[in-house]
Each structure stands twice: as structure tokens, then as C-alpha cells.
Amino acid sequence: MTEAREPAYARRAPGEPCWVSLMVHDLAATEEFYGELFGWEFRPGPRQLGPYVRALLDGREVAGMGRLPADRRLPVAWTPYLATDDVGRTAELVRLCGGTLAVGPLDAAEAGRMALASDPSGAVFGIWQGAGHPGAAVAGRPGTPVWNELLTYETESVAKFYATVFGYDRQPEESAGPDQVTLRLGGRPVAGLRGVGSALRRDRGSHWRTYFEVADADATLRQVVDLGGRVLGPARDVARGRVADVADPEGAEFSVLQDPR
């Protein structure tokens, strides 16, 4: 895993991860879990997909959460949104390259325009054309998303998809594993792809995973359990810090990363 660490800024380059969002069944309980875990507060956001809130850290927007519409079959999972200057054009390119559009494109009030899509392997991601809301307003501190990684069977085909749709450069990370690729924009790492072969869980399939920065990974694991979540494996030390995989009470999986600095 190669971590992207830089200040948040207003205008996001096309292809840059700019937001993460979680759709759940019990929004109030989910707010309580993440509020306790990350110190988030919440305020209402656009309601195109039903009740939706934006999570804030010290008054600055960091992520979104909404209630799953009863008529849509969407996963309970953290979903990264990738920036675009034209969501309609990007959505069409997704289709032309073998992906699928699940929602949109549609307006999210004055905030911008969005779509939900899946890549050829079935992994769901968002597309965001920011207007009044360009994306997360804070980064590089505990409680903020710090990295997004696609877990898939093999990386070659999906790497071509994302490179074609969003213009990424692809860099194999041989030291990190036999099938790991970093997606880069302008030489900067922005996301990762990890091929896990037969270890890919059949009940999940290919999926994106969001990493959130924490001050103390081991203490966070204890807190996750105390709040009704699950620890999916012991914390482990990697090149960029101490990391662990967890799930919230509704089963949405994510990772926490303690920077060694």
C-alpha cells in the first residue's frame, strides 16, 4: 500500500478520489458508531437517494452517509467517489469500457452531479462532478480517509479500465506483493489495486476498501468492538504504518491506519 498524503483543496483533478460515502439501513445508529469512533458530527446533505448526512470533523466535511432506498439493491459498503469535470461523459466512457451505471447521472442539489457505477469486475465506485461541494475538506489527520484500495481477483483488466476512464498511470508495486498496482495522477499515488486470486471472498467479490487514519490502531480495534463492530484480523505493521481491517455494526468493512510519524 502506498499512501497518498496531502492537504485537501477545492478543485480536484479528474480521477482523484475526492469523497467517500456509506449507505446503510439504520442511519441513526451508524452516525452514533462513527461519531464515537472518529469524533464526527453530522449535518443534513442532499437527499436525492433519501436521507443523507455529511460527516464533519471540527466543522469540516470529511465523508457522507445515507439511508439505503428501499427500492434499490446497493451494498452496505464504503464507496469512493472519483472526480470528473463532466459526469455524463465519464459515465458514457464507463459503459464503453465494460462498466455498468447503477445510478445517475443526477443532480445533487447545488453540491454537484453524481453517478454510481461498477467496473468490469463488479466493484462499485462513485463519480463526482463538484460544484458547491468539491469533496472532502480535510485530510491527513485521524478520522479522515487516507487511501482507497480495490481488492479484486487480478489487476490487469481492471487497471486498464481505470486507466482508460480516468487517465491514470499504472505502477506495479512488486515489493508489496505479486499483483499490486498503484494508480497515479501527475506522478502522485491516488489509489491502489490488489489482486488476491482465489482469496477473494465469494460473498463480497471485487470491492473498494477505504482506509481511515487513526492515532492508535490497537486502541481503535478495542473501540470498534465496544461500539458493536467487528475486528476482521489482527493489526499488522506495513511500510506506511500499522493497519487493521474492521467492520461496523451493519457489516460495512473498512481499514484503519496508524501513521508511524
UniProtKB/TrEMBL annotation:
<dbReference type="Pfam" id="PF22677">
    <property type="entry name" value="Ble-like_N"/>
</dbReference>
<feature type="domain" description="VOC">
    <location>
        <begin position="16"/>
        <end position="130"/>
    </location>
</feature>
<dbReference type="InterPro" id="IPR053863">
    <property type="entry name" value="Glyoxy/Ble-like_N"/>
</dbReference>
<dbReference type="Pfam" id="PF18029">
    <property type="entry name" value="Glyoxalase_6"/>
</dbReference>
<dbReference type="InterPro" id="IPR052164">
    <property type="entry name" value="Anthracycline_SecMetBiosynth"/>
</dbReference>
<dbReference type="InterPro" id="IPR041581">
    <property type="entry name" value="Glyoxalase_6"/>
</dbReference>
<protein>
    <submittedName>
        <fullName>VOC family protein</fullName>
    </submittedName>
</protein>
<dbReference type="InterPro" id="IPR029068">
    <property type="entry name" value="Glyas_Bleomycin-R_OHBP_Dase"/>
</dbReference>
<dbReference type="InterPro" id="IPR037523">
    <property type="entry name" value="VOC_core"/>
</dbReference>
<feature type="domain" description="VOC">
    <location>
        <begin position="144"/>
        <end position="259"/>
    </location>
</feature>
